[in-house]
Amino acid sequence: RKKLTILNINRMYKHGEPISMMTAQDYPSGLMVDRSGIDICLVGDSLAMVALGYDSTNPLTVDEMLHHCRAVARGSKSPFLIADLPSGSYEVSPEEAVRTSLRLVKEGNMEAVKLEGGKEMAGTIRRIASVGIPVMAHIGLTPQRQSALGGFRVQGKTAKQAMNLVEDALAVQEAGAFAVLLEAMPAQIGDYITQRLSIPTIGIGAGPMCSGQVLVLNDAMGIFDRFVPKFTKQYANLNQVMTSALEQYHQDVKTKQFPSPENTYPIDQAQLDKFWN
Ligand code: KIV
Ligand code: NA
């Protein structure tokens, strides 16, 4: 497979070809995202919840993120690689945001970063973009700010909220974001923002008219099923597949059905005779 760059992403957008994006959090998932032909691989901070078992994305540290980025990058060679800036690693100052972004690129082998926020992050987006790191902005439902939002809730349901989302989208575009992720908003608002912008929108729960779509791998594969957001489509139920396979293994061990001869190493009879004597 050919390596995708930001130029390929921009070209898809120009030609109206929908952009596919999926998260990954380790070497095997990165490899599978690569082999499936998906355009963008995101090391999302959702891995805090779906891979590490935290209750929210907020506890994730930059070092933890880097550990996962490196693993994904070893498996995902063709997709364009984006990493989330973990909460607490970019909000305090644009300088700190640049520093963290550089770490994700240099130590995490990522190509671009994503951060949560709209107009209030414009200066930060501009600074990161100015050092040559492409920035994707993330507006609407911003999970790192769930306390302020009152939980994982759909955004832009009132005219005023929807207008704020449009302003956010225009502000991050103006600041130099190369794309905007739209999370959990009515389809009409996702459509309107997509039409207003001249950069791609990537939707998750933002309707079918976005320039592209993203899902969280462990949700879409049915690995993480503690709760399933409305916007998730379960393309597989790997939790069920793996749990019943593990039950089978457990039973096989208990009943000595495993290992069978084909999983067992032979030895020459002559060597065995010597061994016994
Ligand atoms: O962390 C994540 O997985 C995300 C999703 C919205 C794709 O940001
Ligand atoms: Na995220």
From TrEMBL:
Belongs to the PanB family. The lineage of its organism: Eukaryota, Fungi, Fungi incertae sedis, Mucoromycota, Mucoromycotina. It is an enzyme of class 2 (transferase). The chain holds residues 64 to 340 of 367 of the full protein. This is 3-methyl-2-oxobutanoate hydroxymethyltransferase. It comes from Absidia repens. GO terms for biological process: methylation; pantothenate biosynthetic process. Keywords: Methyltransferase, Pantothenate biosynthesis, Transferase. It catalyses: (6R)-5,10-methylene-5,6,7,8-tetrahydrofolate + 3-methyl-2-oxobutanoate + H2O = 2-dehydropantoate + (6S)-5,6,7,8-tetrahydrofolate. Pathway: Cofactor biosynthesis; (R)-pantothenate biosynthesis; (R)-pantoate from 3-methyl-2-oxobutanoate: step 1/2. The keyword Methyltransferase applies.
